[in-house]
Amino acid sequence: MHGVAHNGGLGPWNDVESPPAYRIETYSTAPGQYVMALEGELDLAARAELDRALEQLEDQSPQRVVADLTATTFVDASTLGVLECAQRRLRAGAAELRLVCSDSHILKLLGLTGLDRVLDVFDTVAQAVSPSPTNVVWFRHAGS
């Protein structure tokens, strides 16, 4: 029998609750400006928590939210949908969502889905939080 130590005995593998394969951490870099560091696999399992974290930031009436995908290893369509919806809500409140990403696979996915025309994508957090952005991977002018 294979399994893991569980409640003083040996239990089956499927009884073990595995830790999430992602992490979401948010911090402020300046008044009205927030960075959300996203790590690991952002898939359907992360969707609800990611959406909740973005909504909490929206409640702060931000000017800018930066989603840092630097440590992200996987992104699926549900995550891209959450980011697109957040951009729409932020834009309605005169704010913006910027992405930081240098992973070629994620950048390709952004291009294939058309999100490269909706979101500004930067190489680094420092560039993304700058009021005068430089080194934009993709840049969409406000109102375009």
Strand count, sense and barrel status of the largest sheet are: 6 strands, mixed
Low-confidence sequence ranges: 1-7, 139-144
CATH topology description: Transcription Regulator spoIIAA
Q: Structural class of the helix and strand makeup?
A: alpha/beta
- Number of H/I helices: 4
CATH superfamily: STAS domain
From the alpha-carbon coordinates, what is the Rg to the nearest angstrom? 18 Å
Provide the helix percentage: 25-40%
Number of folding domains? Answer: 1
Topology as a string of helices (H) and strands (E): EEEEHEHEHEHE
CATH classification, class level: Alpha Beta
Per DSSP, what share of the residues sits in E-state strands of 2 or more residues? 25-35%
CATH architectural category: 2-Layer Sandwich
Enumerate the strands of the largest sheet in spatial order, edge to edge or round the barrel: 3-4-5-6-7-8
Number of DSSP E strands? 8
How far is the N terminus from the C terminus?
60 Å
Describe this structure in words.
There is one protein chain. By secondary structure, the chain is an alpha/beta fold. The chain has one domain: STAS domain (Transcription Regulator spoIIAA), CATH 3.30.750.24. The chain has helices spanning 44-58, 77-92, 104-113, 125-129, and strands at residues 4-6, 9-11, 22-30, 33-42, 64-75, 96-100, 120-122, 136-138. The chain is globular, with a radius of gyration of 18 Å. The N and C termini lie far apart (60 Å). Residues 1-7 and 139-144 have low confidence and may be disordered.
